[in-house]
């Protein structure tokens, strides 16, 4: 078959064309870097191996599918268009890893091991056979003219190459349909963690977007068979769809880990901030601030603040008036506060009273053996109560009145 030669002056900037391939490659690489420690640590876990294989093959696909890399591969090997079956091999392996992922993800329980092994063998053998057939077809095809971007449509009518193109697109379409369908069905199940559900949504959209890649390629190829020119679907729409799909899939893997990590960091910082009011009050007891290290992690700063507060409360415990705490609790309940809030307000009133008693008679021994369990365990609730001075003032004013006076007034 005779193919038209590329027109003069149509040489394109391969570096510029490679940018849409490098960007999703970087995002996928970031996702792989985030998952890699878990994959190495728990290598025996087939699910983590499937995730690692998926991300690795995805990175390889975008690396070798970039026009600049295609030109380099053809030049180094000296075989025109040999980059095509190599990229198709990586893409087929990626499709297999999608299917292996959903197989292990959905049916990872021990009672499903036999079914998982059977499904795994089917996926590996079928897609390995696809790869072998593709290389045989490429060896039989006549593809002397190097095509960097439009090989699928340029050789759409070429014997053996035509079958090779249809084979890899069929394998890609089937994997996309099955994977996206299973992921979307899983999203509808109950009991999923919020971050995992969001990650699955991005994965579902990403896998579904892969169908646009296959549809664009197939439409352009069929158009060539019927004598029409829709090559722009192959050279513009399909790469864009692949770029978007890969980015969404990478984000889908990143969200559960990054989201959980950021959520935990936010909770730590919020607790550290919530303890500020109580820590500020305890400085008057300890006569100093809690230890501060600029390079300390958020967790370490929280631990130091909590330790500082509890140490100061223990120092203050000899001035705790247990009777005042009981009266303050009853008063808070009488004022309409719910039990948890009433307990925190009563503790705050008792601590403020103890701080004043300690200032007035620092060397005085306290009476009795006050129960400081709540104060030491619920420092966050007490600190929250200290940020409501009007409520504390109302409780404290009524709690300071003897019980007989309160009943007379009421």
UniProtKB/TrEMBL annotation:
Keywords: Membrane, Transmembrane, Transmembrane helix. The keyword Phosphoprotein does not apply. The chain crosses the membrane at residues 21-40, 47-66, 86-103, 124-145, 165-187, 199-225, 237-262. Coiled coil: none annotated. The keyword Membrane applies. Residues 270-388 form the DUF6545 domain. NCBIfam families: MAB_1171c_fam. This is DUF6545 domain-containing protein.
């Amino acid at each position: 078959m005779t193919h038209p030669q590329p027109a003069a002056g149509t040489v394109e900037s391969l570096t510029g064309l490679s940018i849409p391939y490098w960007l999703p490659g970087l995002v996928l690489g970031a996702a792989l870097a985030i998952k890699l420690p878990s994959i190495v640590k728990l290598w025996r876990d087939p699910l983590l191996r499937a995730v690692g294989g998926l991300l690795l093959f995805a990175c390889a696909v975008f690396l070798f599918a970039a026009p600049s890399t295609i030109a380099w591969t053809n030049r180094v090997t000296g075989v025109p268009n040999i980059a095509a079956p190599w990229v198709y091999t990586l893409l087929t392996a990626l499709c297999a890893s999608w299917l292996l992922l959903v197989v292990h993800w959905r049916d990872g329980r021990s009672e499903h091991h036999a079914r998982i092994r059977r499904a795994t063998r089917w996926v590996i053998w079928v897609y390995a056979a696809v790869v072998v057939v593709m290389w045989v077809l490429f060896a039989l095809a006549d593809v002397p003219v190097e095509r960097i971007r439009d090989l699928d449509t340029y050789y759409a009518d070429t014997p053996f190459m035509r079958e090779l193109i249809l084979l890899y697109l069929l394998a890609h379409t089937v994997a996309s349909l099955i994977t996206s369908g299973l992921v979307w069905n899983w999203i509808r199940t109950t009991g999923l963690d919020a971050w995992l559900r969001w990650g699955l949504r991005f994965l579902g959209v990403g896998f579904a977007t892969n169908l646009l890649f296959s549809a664009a390629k197939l439409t352009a190829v069929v158009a060539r068979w019927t004598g029409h020119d829709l090559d722009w679907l192959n050279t513009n729409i399909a790469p864009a769809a692949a770029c978007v799909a890969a980015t969404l899939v990478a984000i889908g893997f990143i969200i559960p880990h990054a989201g959980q990590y950021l959520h935990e960091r936010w909770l730590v910082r919020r607790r550290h901030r919530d303890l500020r009011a109580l820590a500020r009050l305890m400085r008057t007891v300890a006569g100093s601030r809690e230890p501060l290290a600029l390079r300390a992690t958020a967790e370490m700063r929280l631990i130091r603040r909590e330790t500082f507060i509890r140490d100061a409360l223990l120092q203050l415990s000899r001035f705790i008036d247990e009777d005042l705490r009981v009266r303050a609790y009853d008063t808070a309940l009488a004022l309409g506060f719910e039990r948890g809030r009433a307990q925190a307000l009563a503790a705050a009133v008792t601590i403020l009273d103890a701080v004043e008693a300690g200032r007035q008679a620092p060397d005085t021994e306290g009476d009795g053996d006050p129960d400081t369990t709540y104060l030491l365990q619920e420092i966050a609730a007490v600190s929250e109560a200290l940020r409501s001075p009007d409520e504390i003032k109302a409780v404290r004013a009524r709690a300071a009145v003897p019980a007989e006076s309160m009943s007379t007034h009421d």
